[in-house]
Amino acid sequence: MTAPETSIKNRPQFINVRVLRQDEPGAKSYWELHKIKYEREMNVISVLQRIAAQATTVDGKKVTPVAWDCGCLEEVCGSCTMVINGRVRQSCSALVDRLLADNPDEIVLEPMTKFPVVRDLMVDRARLFRSLKRIQGWVPVDSYYNLGPGERIPREDQERNYPLSQCMSCGCCLDACPQYQKIELTQNEGESDEEFEQRQNAEFDEAFIGAAAISQAMLFNNHPTGKALAAERLEALSGPGGITTCGNAQNCVAVCPKEIPLTRSIARTGRATTLHAIKKWFER
Amino acid sequence: MAELTRSQSFFIRHEFGIRRLHSLLGIVPLGLYMCIHLVTNASLMGGAAPFQHAVFWIHSLGPALPILEWGGIFLPLLFHAIIGVWIIRTGKSNTSQYSFTSNKRYKWQRWTGLIAFVFLMFHVLHLHGWFHITPWLAVMQPLGFAQFYPYNAASSLAAAMDQWIWGFWPAFYLVGVMATVYHLANGLWTAGITWGLWTSATAMQRATKVCTVFGVLLGMVALTAWWAAVSMGPADIAAAREKEQEMYDAAVATGLAFDDPHKRAGNDHAEPLSEVDVEAVIIEETIVVEPDSQ
Ligand code: SF4
Ligand code: SF4
Ligand code: FES
Questions:
Q1: ipTM of the complex
Q2: Is A247 at the interface with chain B, CB within 8 A?
């Protein structure tokens, strides 16, 4: 990452920040305007820290601090993802000076649009993790016995896999995807947590799996040990909400902060599922 | 999730196959047929004769033609269109928020698909009529549909373009055919991703260029075909009708055409009439014969 442009001549004294807030899951959301003092080289996280510290809107009304999520502060955990000035991205790597260069009037912060809001800017991305389970996004090793040294990975495969391995499950690719629709269920009265989770998972498992998991399936199918599950992954991707739901809008690849070649993974999945289907047909 | 109906669950269980079939049918037979169709029609630019010749050749299939029409064109088209509408409903376009080119292409692919659907439904009704059953035609022809007579190909096509309010059909066809050309050219590109033909970003860019060139060429063919059909005046139509008559006589003599009055303009009542048909046919006659007398 390069240093932010510091050449802005007329530094503002204050920054207006418009936040889309929501008090609890399922509640109505509402806008709130905050004003904080400008400091040099802020990112959106530091803006949110100031907002939480003052907990007062622009017209002097005392409010609860705005809630948000963050972890690594260096764009590798994905937890701080939100919609900033209309575009989904990480708030830790969203630099205020750049945002102001694009829109000097205000910074607009909204929660991600495809996941249920927990509170304010925090969302529940359980569906994303469920999608990784759907494709068994792991290398199947249990440590019951020694498997011996692993297979050598050709350089070509390493180069193909490394970019895919950088996915941090942030969900940007899903938020920007026109084929990925929000699923938000509420627990029924008398429904146990387990029953609710089961119902939710059933719903998740038939909805679009999304670019991130498709790409992870290609990562593990190209891994010498991971490929033991290749057929099962392709089977999952050929099922409901699998690869065919993709409409090739290619927003995913355009917004992925890790610049993961998602559309390549999607096309590779298209090819692999084609061959898988033909193979299955003749093996019946 | 609410209880699924049986057809919904059938759809979900076979989604992969159904959507791959949707993709395949869009190319073969539909895309391929569209190319042949447009090239055939563009031959009208060279006069009524080459066009009539091509149509004779197509219609020499005789009784096998309706089977080919339904099995090879109409049914695949209906399948592609109905599944297409379902696909559109699964998406929610967001181009105002993310205005990337590929995202706009995604949106246009859906819009042109819808336009093409409406266009083709009316196009087939307008010229072909969908069903060649006498009672059906007796209703449709007076309404200005089923206007194409294969053995008077150029003249009946040109006359049909001139019906209703001036300029309606030409404008309708121009918008419809251009939307369909876009839908095919862009659809080839997405099909290449769907089937995994082009996978890398550079390959996709190259494929975009190829599909663009294809689209522009097919668009020019389509424009030619369109102009050939809409630019014929009354005098051209009369001249074409004469030429067609000559060719018809020769074609019947050589066995290329059958003596089928249904395929001839203003002539489809030569066969014995059943009682029910009489009244309808009389209405029909007054209208269908009209372009002749000009
Ligand atoms: S693929 Fe990119 S955008 Fe999608 S979850 Fe992974 S890192 Fe985020
Ligand atoms: S290419 Fe597919 S996964 Fe990516 S944004 Fe478009 S529809 Fe979604
Ligand atoms: S805090 Fe980890 S990506 Fe922003």
A1: 0.88
A2: yes
Q: By alpha-carbon position, which residue is closest to atom 3 of ligand 3?
A: A75
**Which residues, at least 6 apart from B125, have a Cβ–Cβ distance to it below 8 Å?**
B140, B145, B146
Interface residue of B15, B16, B189 to substitute, partner A, most A CBs within 10 Å: B16
The H-assigned helical ranges of B131-167 are 134-140, 153-161
B74 in a domain, yes or no? yes
- Which positions of chain A have pLDDT values less than 70? 1-10
Distances (CA, A) of B90 to A54, A208, A244, A267: 43, 10, 11, 20
CATH architecture of the domain with range A125-282: Orthogonal Bundle (1.10)
CA trace torsion B185, B189, B192, B197 (10° rounding)? 110
Domain membership flag for residue B255: yes
> What superfamily would CATH give domain A3-119?
Beta-grasp domain (3.10.20.30)
Q: Is the alpha carbon torsion for A203, A207, A212, A216 positive or negative? A: positive
Give CA–CA dist B110/B83, Å, rounded: 12
Nearest-by-Cβ selection for A268 from B13, B196, B204: B196
B54 lies in some domain: yes
Check if A121 has its Cβ closer than 6 Å to any atom of ligand 1. no
In a domain, B89, yes or no: no
* Nearest one of A241, A267, A233, A236 to A252, comparing CA atoms: A267
pLDDT tens, position by position, B187-222: 999 999 999 999 999 999 999 999 999 999 999 999
CATH number of the domain bearing residue B39: 1.20.1300.10
Q: Does B91 touch chain A (CB under 8 A)?
A: yes
- CB A177 less than 6 A from any atom of ligand 3: no
A6 C-beta neighbours (distance < 10 Å), count = 9
Distance from CA of B218 to the nearest CA of A (A): 23
Question: Looking at the 3D structure of chain B, how many domains does it have?
Answer: 1
Spell out the domain ranges in chain A.
3-119, 125-282
List the residue whose alpha carbon is closest to atom 3 of ligand 1: A256
- Residue A233: CB partners within 8 Å, gap ≥ 6? A135, A136, A217, A220, A221
Which of B1, B13, B91 is nearest residue A202 as measured by Cβ atoms?
A: B1
pTM score, two decimals?
0.88
Give distance in angstroms: CA of A139 to centre of ligand 2.
26
Quote the CA–CA distance of A255 and B230 in Å, as a whole number.
46
**pLDDT tens per residue across span B11-35:** 778 899 999 999 999 999 999 999 9
Cα→Cα distances A279→A189, A265, A272, B255, Å: 47, 20, 10, 48
Kindly report the backbone phi and psi dihedral angles of residue A122, in degrees, each rounded to the nearest multiple of 5, phi listed first: -95, 135
